[in-house]
Amino acid sequence: AVPARTNFIRQIIAEDLATGRHARIATRFPPEPNGYLHIGHAKSIVLNFGLAEDFPGTCNLRFDDTNPHKENREFVDAIQQDVRWLGYDWGDRLYFASDYFEQLYGFAVELIEKGLAYVCDLTADQIREYRGTLTVPGRDSPSRDRPVAENLDLFRRMRAGEFPDGTRTLRARIDMASPNINLRDPVLYRIRHGVIHHQTGREWCLYPTYDYTHPLSDALEGITHSLCTLEFEDHRPLYDWCVANVSVPSRPRQIEFSRLNLEYTVMSKRRLTLLVDEGHVAGWDDPRLPTIAGLRRRGYTPAAIRTFCERIGVTRADNLVEMAMLESAIREDLDATAPRRMAVLRPVKVVIENYPADGSEMLTAPNHPKEASMGQRTVPFGRELYIDREDFAEDPPKGFKRLVPGGEVRLRQAYVIRCDQVIKDASGQVVELHASYDPATLGANPAGRKVKGVIQWVPAATAVPAEVRLYDRLFRVPEPGSGETDFRDDLNPASLVRVLDALVEPALADAQPGQGFQFEREGYFVVDQDSRAGRLCFNRTVGLRDSWGK
Ligand code: ATP
Ligand code: MG
Ligand code: MG
Questions:
Q1: What is the pLDDT of residues 420-433, one digit of tens each?
Q2: CATH at 449
Q3: How many whole angstroms from 292 Cα to the centroid of ligand 3?
Q4: 143: domain range?
Q5: Which residues lie closer than 8 Å to 209 by C-beta, 6 or more apart?
């Protein structure tokens, strides 16, 4: 069956299956282990694994690990954890391009024997200079017509470690005058001594390039549709050249789609690495980053990320997606699933003077206003409690519906109270409110008068201290670094506000890292891994509505 959510790639695949070109499809997700995955990678993961779920087929997880000096085991592990967390399972289809180094070497020998590759003595700078430009054709390397036997000998000695870094490369022998610069005798192998590859150790000092490795790895794995981002469109002729000219078992097809660009953030691994290494953020899982690990710590769920990826769709048109789209996906998910709790971010004490000094009672409150199946919790009520400083105004602005001197407000899930007295310190700061409650207003409207405002509160005796981390956009501008300045100059200095002395209701005392809640009227929050018993720590995932910039 053709799945409901269609796109141009799904159409190509449906046709390939209908015409019998393929009986099953095979895709792959091919990260380079040189950083953590980000939301852009999620687009590719949802696409590739999603195709294998919806059509008869498979999806491989393949590490594209041909650049050993930037790659490491930590990244390999984190990537696997993140793909799994997103809900995808590659089963036993875990591959490393480095698994193919020996086969790739053999294919290179085959190209040399066919007169399609040669060992070049030019340096990297010279190669660039000889390559020409869009308007100037390239010039042949002096090594281009080297005899096959000499090429074979030199290539073997390159592998044996006889030549220093940068002195020789293996290049494809294609066309130095091609209008496509990628076909002007591209480098297939370079020499790299002294690096320890996370998979192959010190076995190799000769490393294949991405453009050579990728198509051949696809072909070796029997990939039918090799999906990549649009910047590789110009590389497709080289991709096809590689597959056509060596004895690989299959002929994969490369199809390009537009990469995800998201406002107010950066996604290139070079930039993310700088933010982490220079300490602009606390690590790859900083909740302000668009990394999967950061989004997870921020309180995003796999379901919300997948929904977002489905909604943005797959096209060939480059665009910049609004952050609001990502935020509405998580807000919808959490609105339906997050238990409601009360939290007071800026506490000010309220003493209810007509409540018995030694009295207390257990009130019950539903965990979700619409989902009775989510049950309820108890909230102890007593003579002393805390409300948010911002829910009281001595000199209220117009339309203020919360507590004012002499006015009434409903305490959420509890009684209506009236503010009778405002106690201030020497500097004029409000330190305490004295109030009275109306015992007849528990779950009932007060007789003969309307009380419009509802505010949160926590009981003074049993509230749990908490740190609350309020996050804003990491950058101040939609496209960081797009102007004259460095992207780091566009960082938002207020992207994290730490509220150190918040109080939350006692039902949260045992909340565990990763659990998400709605703090009524404040937003959605998740327990951070920095949480400790008696000192909780929450991250704000997203506000209740899209109020940013308003
Ligand atoms: P960078 O250029 O930042 O290093 P990359 O594309 O090289 O990123 P890879 O690890 O090679 O990162 O990417 C693995 C796969 O994810 C590739 O198929 C790539 O096309 C895809 N991908 C990476 N970034 C995005 C993005 N922003 N949108 C969609 N797909 C992406
Ligand atoms: Mg890269
Ligand atoms: Mg890449």
A1: 999 999 999 999 99
A2: 2.40.240.10
A3: 17
A4: 8-257
A5: 66, 186, 187, 188, 189, 190
